[in-house]
Amino acid sequence: MAFHIVYILEAHAADLWQSSSNLSQSVVFATPEDYDERSNVAGACVRKLNIQIPAVLDKFDNAVERDYTGWPDRLYVVDRDGRIAFKSKPGPFGFHPADVRKVLEGLVAR
């Protein structure tokens, strides 16, 4: 079993929709213009939030975000066969980790 975060497009870019909490926490980034800039922003996110699981980047064409409707946040469980076993409602308020746990326990029990 593996867990990953997929970093997609910047949700609160300073040049689009800057949130007041980002300002107060000095987390202010413009929309990345290339893959290296996106990588730097994602790295800052991982460090700032002290994320302990592996993070990967969506390609710059945003294919993962588009195909999985990842914005603003989503939780997914993909089974051993590569099929989506669970897709949460949009987060952060629409998903609940207990729902993921239930699905994972069911998959492990198989």
Structural features, described:
The protein has 110 residues and is α+β, with helices and mostly antiparallel strands. It has four helices and four strands, in the order E-H-H-E-H-E-E-H. The strands form two sheets. A two-stranded parallel ribbon has the order 1-2. It has a two-stranded antiparallel sheet with strand order 3-4. The protein is elongated. The two termini are 13 Å apart. The model has no long low-confidence stretch (mean pLDDT 85).
**How would a textbook summarize the main sheet?**
2 strands, parallel
Task: Label the structural class.
Answer: alpha+beta
Helix content: 25-40%
Strand order of the largest sheet: 1-2
Distance between the termini: 13 Å
Instruction: Tally the beta strands.
Output: 4
Radius of gyration: 15 Å
Mean pLDDT: 85
In summary, what is this structure?
The protein is built from four helices and four strands; from the N terminus they run E-H-H-E-H-E-E-H. By secondary structure, it is α+β, with helices and mostly antiparallel strands.
